[in-house]
Design a protein that fits this description.
The structure holds 2 protein chains of 2 kinds.
Chain A (H helix, E strand, L loop, with lengths): L1 H21 L9 E3 L3 H6 L5 E3 L1 H7 L2 H4 L15 H6 L32 E2 H10 L15 H7 L4 H4 L13 H6 L24 E4 L9 E4 H7 L2 H5 L18 H5 L18 H4 L13 E2 L8 E4 L10
Parallel strand pairs in A: 4-6
Antiparallel strand pairs in A: 1-2, 1-3, 4-5
Chain B lengths: L1 H14 L10 E3 L3 H6 L2 E6 L1 H7 L2 H4 L15 H5 L21 H4 E6 L4
Antiparallel strand pairs in B: 1-2, 2-3
């Protein structure tokens, strides 16, 4: 029996090594590379930090850390070992030996080989591996989509074994995981907090798509207020992402594509916005519930065409 | 400036009869009223670029009928795995995603911002 166990163990090891050679980056979608203090890390002979977002997300809702501990923007949090251990800020808020393990084993966090750009993982991937593909078409083995590439790449064994539901790219479908009660992350670290202290909101907002052919967006407040608290979107520290007034936010899909509005979270940690039908899910003129807020559309301003697309702007 | 001149040369090359090209870029503007509501303008479809990558039968007639005006393309279809968003195309992992509006559409800007 020992013999069989050894064989299995060896096979797993070989597989793990093979996987690690085949993929360039050991990170999951939504993970964040922290290496703005790279030179100091090299002096201390440690690797870059890979923050496993998914690992924390299984246990805690976004609002536990955001924005009391970390601002909701990669690069805007000044994290250092000194402040972490002495003042118990940033990671040290939990990693103090009480809530989570003390930061004594460097390799647990300083786990990523240097050479990647800081920030959410797909940006790093985009710079290193996707850019050469622009100008060409992706193939089945080398897809263009950064999300598909991440999903088909390396995953932590614990995550693949978890059986969490997946979306069309193969990334974890966190909303589904919560709705089907596969995970039940905590909403606060405060032991004395009462469930009624949690602010949640169930109303839906119908965003009427401006074009005649695109289905409308029925925005669910419930799942967003499950993960987040009102102030994270409506009183964000570096300026509210969404003003708390229907019609006050002049959103457009172009700006979302450029990383504003919904894309402050989606495309970075929450599910990718290229999954059109996950948001544009409400056929035009179909009925909505009574308490749905209908987003007022401002009158279409008159337009003049600018920056006509030129041929070499097309990228595949 | 360099960008513009490259574009100019490319336009000239594509339009040049010496290359024997049958189909040049198409302007898709049958739904321009709806596009304008969304702050966008007509699509200039680069047929030539697609010719370089695909064979005719990859798209015709299974995805697009090879007759101008015969394909009623709209965003609803694109996001539902039809037309430009057909499997393996712009709603998949193998080409740029549909939310980069200005990769296909002309961009309009408001003249009188309220």
């Amino acid at each position: 029996m020992i013999h069989i166990a050894t064989i299995i163990k060896n096979t797993v090891l070989v597989l793990a090594v093979a996987l690690s050679i085949a993929t360039p980056l050991h990170a999951e979608y939504g993970d964040i590379i922290l290496n703005s203090k790279a030179s100091s890390m090299r002096d201390a002979e440690v690797d870059d930090v890979l923050f496993p977002h998914w690992f924390h997300r299984i246990r805690y809702r976004c609002s536990v850390c955001h924005e009391q501990i970390f601002k909701l923007k990669a690069g805007s949090n000044d994290i250092s070992m000194a402040s972490m251990t002495e003042n118990e800020v940033a990671c040290g808020k939990c990693h103090n030996g009480l809530v989570a393990w003390e930061p004594l084993e460097c390799d647990r966090c300083h786990s990523l080989e240097p050479g990647w750009e800081p920030g959410p993982i797909q940006h790093a991937l985009q710079k290193e591996t996707i850019d050469p593909l622009i100008g060409k078409v992706g193939t089945r083995t080398k897809p263009y989509s950064k999300f598909m590439e991440i999903a088909s790449g390396w995953h932590p064994l614990a995550l693949t074994a978890s059986g969490l539901p997946l979306d069309k790219y193969g990334l974890v479908n966190w909303a589904q995981a919560v709705r089907s009660k596969i995970v039940d992350p905590l909403w606060t670290l405060d032991q004395n907090a009462k469930p009624e202290d949690y602010q949640s909101r169930n109303t839906k907002i119908l965003f009427k798509a401006k074009g005649d052919f695109m289905p409308d967006v029925l925005f669910p407040h419930d799942i967003h207020s499950f993960w987040l608290q009102c102030k994270i979107c409506h009183e964000t520290k570096d300026g509210a992402i969404f003003l708390e007034k229907a019609g006050a936010n002049r959103m457009s899909m172009r700006e979302i594509g450029q990383g504003r509005w919904c894309a402050r979270c989606h495309d970075k940690v929450a599910f990718p916005i290229s999954d059109c039908q996950r948001c544009h899910n409400h056929p035009k003129d179909s009925p909505v519930d009574k308490d749905t807020i209908i987003r007022i559309i401002e009158e279409a301003p008159s337009h003049v065409p600018v920056n006509r697309v030129v041929v070499d702007d097309y990228q595949f | 400036m360099i960008r513009v001149s490259i574009a100019g040369i490319l336009c000239w090359l594509i339009a040049s009869p010496a290359f024997g090209i049958d189909v040049i870029d198409m302007v898709l503007d049958s739904k321009v009223a709806s596009m304008n509501k969304a702050g966008l303008g007509p699509v200039t479809y680069p047929h030539k670029l697609h010719e370089q990558i695909y064979k005719c039968e990859d798209c015709h007639p299974s995805i697009f009928i090879d007759k101008r005006g015969a394909n009623d393309i709209d965003m609803q279809k694109n996001i539902s795995d039809q037309a430009c968003g057909a499997p393996g195309c712009h709603n998949s992992a193998y080409a740029f995603p549909l939310y980069f509006c200005d990769k296909c559409h002309t961009v309009l800007e408001p003249t009188d911002e309220k």
